[in-house]
Fold these 2 entries.
Entry 1:
Amino acid sequence: MAEIPKIILRIETSVAYGRGLLYGIAKYSRIHGPWAFYSEPGAEQTALPHLDKWGASGIITRIPDEGKLDQLVINGLPAILIPLKEKIPDFPNIIDDCATAGRMAAEHLLDRGFRNFAFCGFSDMHWSRDRRENFTKRIAKAGFETQSYERPRAKVVCYYQKELRLLAEWLNLLPRPVGVMTCDDEHGRHAVEACKVAGLHVPEQVAIVGVDNDELTCTLSDPPLSSIAVNTRKAGYKAAALLDRLMTGREKMAEKKIIVRPLHVVTRQSTDVLAIKDREVAEAIRFIHRNAKRPIQVSDAADAAALSRRVLEKRFRKIMGRSVYGEINRQRIGHVAGMLVDTDQSISQIALSLGYPSVKHIARSFRREKGMSPLAYRKQYGFK
């Protein structure tokens, strides 16, 4: 009987990101294993046993920086790393698609009519910097600037109450209304609390969107935090598959990227607002967002806004930079994309539930909006 591989998992379980990776790893083990796991609950800082005596076959570990390699990776042990600060050369790394996350957050806030923008995150974390740079880039493309707040890392200023005051002071200096992206959900929750300290209203004066869609963190926030959902489960599954190949010698240790891909924005109360002065256009947008799961027409949006179709089209395009039909199609395809990732429904079932006349029609609209077929999208972003 073949020996069961022993895998060390040093992945934080107190946040949804780590739990998602572990879920994917566990699923791979159930299908292709079994594997035996060493994993302690809580944070990844938990002390490890004498690894040399346990006879580990491989490790998937969170790692602060390259200087900790010797402490966390036994010489010659197949390893996949989740870098905290900077990517680690010569090893497979699980990293985030920060370009897409930054763009998604920017477009989410732009779509709500914001013209003032800000980012809140770390300066010494590669994933936070990358998210900020890509958020700022997309905002700049739309013709606006982004203010940035870099969270202090020194212990002397990291006490919660003191940092909250610093963040509140920064938020109070921003032009309002302002759309804010935070580097993750914990930062988003802190930003919401800082708004309370500053006497600012969320989302009317400050709209906030985070990343990772940690449901507990997002719902603990008051008001609940909007966030970008990411496919950690699929990344965990892929990491386990690569580790399997490394342990069996089918692949050699080398620098590779396992990408955690953003899926969509989960809108909660922290961004459930329209910063659009034109009341009729705002009403048309609200109507589209609320009814995008059914086959609505441009004339329906015009009726909701109490405007003629021609007048609505002209004012809508001036403010939003696209047609009313373009917005309807974009919102409906967004629902299609979410169902492709979150459900096992067939394309024909999705088409029927959303009122599309045929699979051919939904496929044509989807490819035009997303640049790929529905099946290709499900394969790239869905979880097996």
Entry 2:
Amino acid sequence: MRKSNEVSLKDALKLMVSNMRIKPGLYQHRIEEIWKKKMGTTIAQNTSEIKVRGKKLFLTINSAPLKQELSYSKPKIIEMINAHLGEEYLEDVVIR
């Protein structure tokens, strides 16, 4: 039986990350990895910069047709990344 002041290791780590304000840095790295794995080599090679500021994902894409294609897929991109992060973190995608 658990005492009321005991927490799981998972919950303790989440609390530590949020209290130390390192979540944006951790998510920056995780989102870069998710982007490379899930979007494929062609899109990853045409992506020159991935930045997370606040709850927005900023993507710098080198190909104009790819920019256009990805701009139609913003909701899917947000949904896919949030699903892999395990929470509703991203709210918007800005493609430059």
